[in-house]
Amino acid sequence: MADKKAKSIDQATIELIEKAAKDNCNIAFDRADEMKPCPIGSVGSCCKNCGMGPCRVPLPRGKEETPEEQMKRRGICGATAETISARNFVRMIAGGSAAHSDHGRGVAELFLAVAKGEASGYEIKDEQKLLQLALEWGIEIGDRSNNEIAIDIGEKALAEFGKQEGELLFISRAPLKRQEIWRREGVVPRGIDREVVEIMHRTHMGVDQDYDNLLKQGTRAALADGWGGSMIATELQDILFGTPSPLLSQVNLGVLKKDEVNIIIHGHEPLLSEMIVAAAQDPQMLEMAKSKGAKGINLAGICCTANEILMRHGVPLAGNFLQQELALVTGAVDAMVVDVQCIFESLPEVAQCYHTKIVTTSYKAKMKGATHIEFEEHDALTSAKEIVKLAIENFPNRGSNIHIPEEKTDLIAGFSHETINYLLGGLFRASYRPLNENIINGRIRGVAGVVGCNNPRAMHDEAHVAMVKELIKNDVLVLQTGCSAMATAKAGLLVPEAAAQYAGAGLAEVCETVGIPPVLHMGACVDNSRILIAATAAVKDGGLGDDISDLPVAGAAPEWMSEKAIAIGQYFVTSGVFTVFGVTWPTTGSKEVTDFLFEGIEEKYGGKWAFEQDPIKAARLMIEHIDKKRAALGIDKARERVLYDMAMRRELDEV
Question: How are the residues of the chain apportioned to helix, strand and coil, as percentages rounded to the nearest 5?
Fold first, then answer.
């Protein structure tokens, strides 16, 4: 761990924070020091949903209040702290669900265009997954071509967004008991867009003023994300770009190269980045780079677009969320190409300190000071080549103020649900049975999903790494996505050798036998749907209960900052998973709402939230929950193995 006075545990990050200061370049770490969070807004008790406010409802003073004092703690319209807190919370769910689901819509639109032959450069790469999805959705296969089948899939996927009644198609993937719980509670999503829009209506001034009813609609929208938009994005991307399988790559800012054109791809949608990978390998582009004095073209990624092209092409990771400005501070990035989500508006200003070109590509996400090159899906390779050419032409403009840190670490990524299934059971007996058996026999204590962002209100990467080390030390297999996976990759936890060094004896034995790391990189943040599918597969393989809530599993986002994280957390909680967040919690301005999310919600859905800033204590909460589930399943104690003879078997038959 780094010096506690430092902003990060990562040496490359520390070096470049210091360089930015010397270069008089203002970055997110500086702004976090200068700007303190609002004490009322940060706990969810500030309402700005109309022009009468903002109304700031202060926390009670710790004594029993009179009715007159309670009335003073209301907004101008009379809204209580409970209503305001719940409105703010579900609006975060709406924002997060909209972001991931709009990603899914974009993928579905491209998928349909490819199937119709209207988007050159793309092709269907996973035929088996295409046919599996067609069977699942009741689409005729027969002697039809892949493109004919894909047209039906694309149209059905797009229809999920505008649906007004019924149930989302992927709801049927959940365990039957889980589906019954959702129907009982009346929270099965009807259509993805409808649930998000309904939150915005309900949280308008003077509409829904019952926190329980508001949170119920928040659950519908969250489930529409996890079991709808995000799952659509993951499944169709796999069919279109290929289902990830394990591959070796590297992570951290040391992957940049001083003698090559460096292009950083940053954001969350891989539709254009797939073509940039192809363009960067084009002989004409490579020859152009050499004509400018470069030895080649080097691609690297930041945030979840990075995870997408890592899993399918082995493109190295330059870093996670809080390293986006620092990549520019190296002075070695010739172009940073951004699409949507988690992109700092400060990037063009930071780029002015150096020579980097910032290129926006989505009509949904433009920035002052950036060059805009519109992504045209029907001619994507042309857009990609234009971007690569811009970077090449900028290479000679580099100054002498270049510092590329040495830090870079090996990692193994690409653990899709299908890959895990294959690794555990082989080609002909693919199954989660070996995982379940090793949970039952105690070699693996349980499974944890550790996901989410970085937040400058916490030391960069520290909580992710500390939590994951504590979990694997206690024989908990960890599944990761997004920036969290990058944090632990930099710490050397995403290689098989990490099992012997950091994992408990039982988990290490399983990892060595299968040949996997103790921490599995499952993809981008939209790919948290893979974790839902994996959890469902574990239930269906038997021996660990009949619902996700029965499994010895837990989730966490120790450095979260995004509305997407709240949406993800809510769909995990209401899918039956105990989920811990760190840094801050957005409803503590209302004890009633917070108590419901931390305790009462478990009675309805079998999962609940928790908040703990200390990553070790948070990990211990997760382990305690896992142990409680093991005890409920009766697998908390070692049992003597009995070999039955024929007489004993006959006795069983008689019973």
Answer: 55, 10, 35
Among 584, 605, 609, 583, residue whose Cα is nearest residue 595? 609
Q: Can you tell me the mean pLDDT for 526-533?
A: 94
DSSP state of 558: T
Token code pair at residue 316: 């190295």
Burial pattern 180-219, b for ≥16 Cβ within 10 A else e, equals ebbeeeebbbbbbbbbbebbbebbebeebbebeebbbbbb
Do the beta carbons of residue 260 and residue 286 sit within 8 Å? no
| Residue 259: φ, ψ to 5° | -105, 15
**Residue located via tokens 């992504």:** 375
> pTM here?
0.93
**Alpha carbon 170 to its chain's center:** 19
Whether 275 and 239 have beta carbons less than 8 Å apart is answered as no
Whole-angstrom distance, CA of residue 362 vs CA of residue 558:
30
DSSP 400-436: S-----S--EEEEE---HHHHHHHHH-SSS--SHHHH
Question: Does 464 score more than 80 pLDDT?
Answer: yes
Pairing of strands 247-251, 409-413: antiparallel
Residues facing residue 263 across a β-bridge = 299, 335
The domains of the chain, with CATH numbers, are 81-241 (1.20.1270.30), 253-397 (3.40.50.2030), 415-633 (3.40.50.2030)
Q: Please report, rounded to a whole number, the percentage of residues in the chain having pLDDT higher than 90.
A: 86
Give yes or no for a contact between 236 and 105, defined as CB atoms under 8 angstroms apart: no
Give the Cα separation of 413 and 411 in Å (integer): 6
Give the span between the Cα atoms of 377 and 212, in whole angstroms: 43
Region 513-531 average pLDDT: 94
Categorize the per-residue pLDDT at 122 as very low, low, confident or very high, splitting at 50, 70 and 90.
Answer: very high
Averaged pLDDT, 215-226: 98
- Overall residue count recorded for the chain in this entry: 655
